[in-house]
Amino acid sequence: MRFSITGLSVLLSLVATSSAETASEEMLRNIDTFARYAAFGYCDHLVDGRNINTGTKVCSGGGIPGGCGDLQDAVVVMEFPSSEGAAGYVALSNKTQQIVVSFRGSKPGRDFLSDVNTCKTRTPKFLNFMQGAVDWVARGMQDNMDKISRPIISNVVKAACSVLGGAVIDTSDPLFPICPDCQLHSGFYEAFKGLKDKMLETVKEQKAAHPDFEVVVTGYSLGAALATLGAAYLRKAGFVADMYTYGSPRVGDAKFAEFVSNQRKGKNFRITNANDPVANIPWQDAGFGHVSPEYWFPQGLAAKEMQVCSGTDNLQCSGSFPFNLHDVAGGKARMKPHVWTEYAIGFPFTGPSACPGRSGRKGNPEDSRPFSEEEVAAMRRLASEGAEE
């Protein structure tokens, strides 16, 4: 018997379950704590690999109302940048007795045009994404894009414009594939492949030195996708690892999502905020599934009211808000649910001033003109080529 992807999605959504709950103070504290670890992954100073094993503090307290909270004594014990632009660090906290692995997604805008280029050969939604982009350009795209940053836009495109499979699996690694017959987002897998060895080695060393400490893996946005792979990988290596992800895109197919959801060595906390559009890419009709359960805060995390949705392909919770290009074109107001300050309660991450040590990220992340005229022209050309094929 043959089922279409759309039919399968509808079937899975029917068996998905949801329940309304009030998040406990402990859960909210944990969500806030690991959102902060994830946000600090965007400080270059913590992930550039230049100060390995120097005890750099994760949080300095500068520019952060209320201070560092549970990150007060956390120090970086390993940094791991990669040639793919993704990065991360491992931190140790004696106060909370935790080993925390934090991932950052690909460096914003690193290969934006190559990401866009893949759209023209994908499912109809990918092609429509590019065709919509051309219309957007014609209507004065830069006016809307002045309101949101290049990192957000380019990361959305990177997540959307990729496919299941297509990557060369590292057959020399006994932990791969993570699960039999699973397929992964090709871009996320390639990024993770450059980080996994150093991550695993560091966690082994820290657990040997601190056997009673918990292992927690976290990440925001595309870093959340890498954190999903990281947690699954560490569990397969024998570690108990909890996972906290924020605004995660879909990482693999339904088999992968089901496998990670059912791993017994650690709990999954896939946190979503309101109508975060990034939580709905890549699309289900391209074969992707989500890790379960989802902890959805429809009115924002500060409201404490959440809905728990189970099922790897549920169309409830944040899944009830499909992603379209106009979500990006809508500017800052529409993309606000995905901004990291919406996930870390009362944590207005203010950029370089909040980063410890060196000044942090270079340049202005809120670039008033996110794309050059050359990039806009290339987007038009790529979309035109896709429409002709």
Summed up, the domain count is 1
Distance between the termini: 32 Å
The CATH class is identified as Alpha Beta
Give helix and strand order, one letter per element, not per position.
HEHHEEEHHHHHHEHEEHEEEEHHH
Structural class: alpha/beta
Q: What count of helical segments does DSSP give? A: 14
What's the architecture in CATH terms?
3-Layer(aba) Sandwich
The strand order across the widest sheet is: 1-11-10-8-6-5-4-3-2
Give short descriptive properties of this protein:
single chain, 389 residues, alpha/beta, Rossmann fold, 9-stranded mixed β-sheet, two-stranded antiparallel sheet, globular, disordered N terminus, hydrolase activity, AB_hydrolase_fold, Fungal_lipase-type, AB_hydrolase_lip/est, signal
Can you offer a commentary on this structure?
35% of the residues lie in helices and 15% in strands. The chain has 389 residues and is an alpha/beta fold. It has a single domain, classed as Alpha/Beta hydrolase fold, catalytic domain (Rossmann fold, 3-Layer(aba) Sandwich), CATH 3.40.50.1820. The strands form 2 sheets. It has a 9-stranded mixed beta sheet with strand order 1-11-10-8-6-5-4-3-2, sandwiched between helices. Strands 7-9 form a two-stranded antiparallel sheet. Helix 5 packs across helix 14 (373-388) and helix 8 packs across helix 10 (222-236). The chain is globular.
